[in-house]
TrEMBL record:
PROSITE patterns associated with the record: HTH_CROC1 (PS50943)
A GO MF term: DNA binding
PANTHER family referenced in this protein's UniProt entry, alphabetically: BLL4672 PROTEIN, BLL4672 PROTEIN-RELATED
Domain (HTH cro/C1-type): residue spans on this chain: 41-88
Region (Disordered): 17-40
Annotated protein name in UniProt: Transcriptional regulator
Length: 268
């Protein structure tokens, strides 16, 4: 097993000490006499008890003398310190471990992002979807432009489901654009399953598409995985006819939300 370099273990220990010093000590129980604390925060024993580890081992961690911590120990420390996701991820990186992958994306879109999305309705279509490819929000311009992809049912919000069940895809994108979109949708969906391998919703959706869509089965067999950040799309607007858009994807990694901006271009 690869050990964390000594300099990293030292920084890791310093981070633990700073976090422990910033925690609020417990109130003494009824009738108990509070002992005098020489330093702020929790004692090592108190923190070790919260994490479910021995005080001897925790002391070695703070002193930079312990071997590489397991992911279980790191998760226990993060819970004991009541770390935010960003703080927990920092703790894992200091210990030489990649941060834990989220079990599922956040369900709610940030309020400020929603305000931006609706504020741009007169300028450009904007959508927000999560790492499972579920559409979470769209402004009126996007709803008008993408209306042919709208779907219902338990998977109606999912972009992959919309793409593989839409009957008017060539009318919206043209034959070449439609073929490219189904290819990308299958590749993106495979990527979503790799991020959330235990997600029952995604597993059920895959079974549904495999049972009902020949196109999905054909593209799934290619085994492609892809996440596009930029693209140019030729889309038929219901009132304005064919329009060209620069597509840019912005990612919020904490919530695993993707913002898709459709910036209008001059007609080709």
């Amino acid at each position: 097993m690869t050990r964390v370099p000594s300099a990293d273990r030292t920084e890791f220990g310093e981070y633990l000490r700073r976090r422990r010093a910033g925690m609020i000590p417990p109130e003494p129980g009824a009738g108990a006499r509070a002992s005098r604390r020489r330093v702020p925060g929790l004692r090592r024993q108190e923190l070790a008890d919260l994490a479910g580890i021995s005080v001897e081992y925790y002391t070695r961690l703070e002193q930079g003398r312990a071997p590489r911590s397991s992911r279980e120990i790191l998760a226990a420390l993060a819970r004991a310190f009541e770390l935010s996701r960003a703080e927990r991820d920092h703790l894992f990186r200091l210990a030489g471990e990649p941060p834990p992958e989220p079990e599922s994306p956040e369900a709610a879109v940030r309020p400020g992002l929603l305000r931006m999305l609706h504020g741009l309705a007169g300028t450009m279509p904007v959508t927000v979807h999560d790492g499972r490819l579920d559409l979470l929000a769209l402004n009126t311009a996007a709803a008008e432009l993408l209306q042919p992809l709208a779907a219902t049912g338990p998977y109606g919000r999912n972009i992959a489901y919309q793409v593989f069940t839409a009957t008017a895809l060539p009318d919206l994108l043209g034959d070449e654009g439609a073929e490219l979109l189904v290819r990308v949708a299958a590749a993106e969906f495979r990527g979503a399953l790799s991020r959330y391998p235990g997600d029952r919703y995604l597993q059920a959706l895959r079974a549904e598409l495999a049972a009902t869509s020949t196109s999905f089965r054909d593209h799934w067999e290619r085994g492609e995985v892809e996440t596009r950040r930029s693209a140019v799309k030729h889309i038929r607007h219901p009132a304005q006819g064919w329009l060209n858009f620069d597509i840019e994807m912005l990612h919020d990694p904490e919530r695993d939300h993707w913002v898709m901006l459709y910036t209008p271009r001059d007609p080709a």
